[in-house]
């Protein structure tokens, strides 16, 4: 390129696309980082639209490349708990119908799989959030001996819930929980490690659960957050209860 050509190129007014890229690339990088750096094109496109940007999926993908960000891939490894062949097992009351009228959330982080420590504390957290009464709740799990421990199953019944288990060796019967566990490991544990203490993992999990419920966009929820779906659900229930009987029967 001649010196005259170089001066002409450097003095040329930036194109509208270039100016828009200069504006959007940092925004894509910021939003991606704020969401654990895990969103792919689909969720980033939905997030950008929610932020008010008139942008298409292909443009989102191009901007992500310019920003040097991409989504994470789920692990295909499957880990299962060990069952106790001598234990009496509850029936499968879920039958892969993974829907619920409400949401109860409990979690725990511990250095042991003992039922009275890891699982019990997660169950008790869910119970506290529900006012100490889990009546009407179906507690579904696999056949792991820690879930079938008498001290744990007794606590489930004490809180008013009904225990349920899937079939042996079939991860599809517990697909919802398996999917959540997989995402937790993919989006948090493997992304933010290495971890030095249980306390580090516990604090990070606390933050992750809040993000999961209040900010994370879920494809299964039409790119809404769980809190948005739950709020809409309760609003619909309240509206139905306030409607005159004649209108409800139309």
In angstroms, what is the radius of gyration? 24 Å
Strand order of the largest sheet: 1-2
Proportion of β residues? under 5%
Per DSSP, the total helix count is 11
The number of E-state strands comes to: 2
What top-tier CATH class of the domain at 81-193 fits best?
Alpha Beta
The backbone outline, from C-alpha atoms, is: elongated
Backbone structural class: mainly alpha
- What distance separates the N and C termini? 77 Å
Helix and strand pattern: HHHHHEHHEHHHH
CATH level 4 superfamily of the domain at 81-193: Ribonuclease H-like superfamily/Ribonuclease H
Task: Return residue spans where pLDDT drops below 50 for at least 5 consecutive residues.
Answer: none
CATH topology-level fold name of the domain at 81-193: Nucleotidyltransferase, domain 5
CATH architecture of the domain at 81-193: 2-Layer Sandwich
Helical content (DSSP H or I, runs of 4+): 40-55%
Calculate the mean pLDDT score and round it: 80
Sheet with most strands: 2 strands, parallel
InterPro entries: HTH-like_dom, Integrase_cat-core, RNaseH-like_sf, RNaseH_sf, Transposase_IS3/IS150/IS904
Organism: Agromyces seonyuensis
Domain HTH-like: 21-77
GO molecular function: nucleic acid binding
Please give a structural write-up:
The protein has 250 residues and is mainly α. Among the domains are: 11-67; 81-193, 2-Layer Sandwich (Nucleotidyltransferase, domain 5). The chain has helices spanning 3-11, 16-34, 41-50, 57-67, 115-129, 145-148, 150-158, 175-192, 198-214, 226-242, 245-248; strands spanning 138-141, 162-165. Helix 2 crosses helix 4 (57-67), helix 3 crosses helix 4 and helix 5 (115-129) packs parallel to helix 7 (150-158). The longest helix has 19 residues, at 16-34.
């Amino acid at each position: 390129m001649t010196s005259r050509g170089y001066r002409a190129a450097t003095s040329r007014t930036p194109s509208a696309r270039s100016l828009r890229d200069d504006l959007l690339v940092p925004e894509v990088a910021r939003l991606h980082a704020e969401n654990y750096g895990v969103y792919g094109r689909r969720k980033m496109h939905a997030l950008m639209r929610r932020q008010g940007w008139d942008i298409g999926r292909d443009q989102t993908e191009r901007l992500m490349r310019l920003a040097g960000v991409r989504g994470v891939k789920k692990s295909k490894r499957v880990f299962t708990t060990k069952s106790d062949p001598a234990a009496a097992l509850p029936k499968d009351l879920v039958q892969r119908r993974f829907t619920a009228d409400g949401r109860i959330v409990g979690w725990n982080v511990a250095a042991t799989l003992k039922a009275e420590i890891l699982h019990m504390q997660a169950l008790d957290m869910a119970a506290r959030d529900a006012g100490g009464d889990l009546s009407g709740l179906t507690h579904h799990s696999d056949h792991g001996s820690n879930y079938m421990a008498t001290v744990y199953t007794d606590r489930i019944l004490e809180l008013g819930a009904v225990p349920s288990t899937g079939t042996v060796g079939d991860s599809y019967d517990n697909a919802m929980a398996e999917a959540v566990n997989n995402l937790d490991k993919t989006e948090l544990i493997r992304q933010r490690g290495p971890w030095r203490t249980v306390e580090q993992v516990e604090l990070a999990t606390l933050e992750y659960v809040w993000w999961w419920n209040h900010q994370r966009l879920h494809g299964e929820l039409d790119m809404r957050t769980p809190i948005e779906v739950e709020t809409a659900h309760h609003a619909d229930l309240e509206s139905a209860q306030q409607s005159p009987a004649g209108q409800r029967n139309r």
